[in-house]
Design a protein that fits this description.
About 60% of the residues lie in helices and about 0% in strands. It is mainly alpha-helical. The two termini are about 35 Å apart.
């Protein structure tokens, strides 16, 4: 599941809607909505995002957060390390090989490290 898919499911669940009901309201197929929720589709289009924002009545901060989640919801990521230190290439390759085996704790630590929050030290 992607961050966007998780949020979309939470919005839908909060309204007590099925995927089919929300898909109909947003004028998309239930299969497309399911693929978004399960991370089998990449980030949604701007037009689709506007439909979601309008349908759920999201205001400024919530709409911006949803856009941020969509930008972080590409299930297939490419990292271009050309021209960088060889350690960057090694790190990217190791992450690609091992990300599926990281524990919840390790993923949380990695996310905390990579987030925009200031780090001590």
């Amino acid at each position: 599941m992607t961050p966007f898919g998780e949020k979309l499911r939470a919005l839908r669940d909060a309204r007590g809607m099925t995927q089919a009901e929300l898909a109909s309201a947003l004028d998309v197929s239930p299969a497309y909505l399911s693929a978004l929720e399960h991370g089998k589709r990449g980030a949604p289009s701007w037009a689709f995002m506007q439909k979601v924002i309008q349908y759920f009545g999201l205001i400024w901060d919530d709409a911006e957060r949803l856009h941020d989640l969509a930008r972080l919801s590409k299930p297939k990521v490419t990292i271009d390390t050309s021209g960088m230190d060889e350690r960057a290439t090694r790190a990217a390759n190791l992450l690609a090989q091992r990300i599926g085996r990281l524990t919840d704790r390790e993923l949380d630590q990695l996310l905390a490290f990579l987030s925009d929050q200031p780090r001590a030290g």
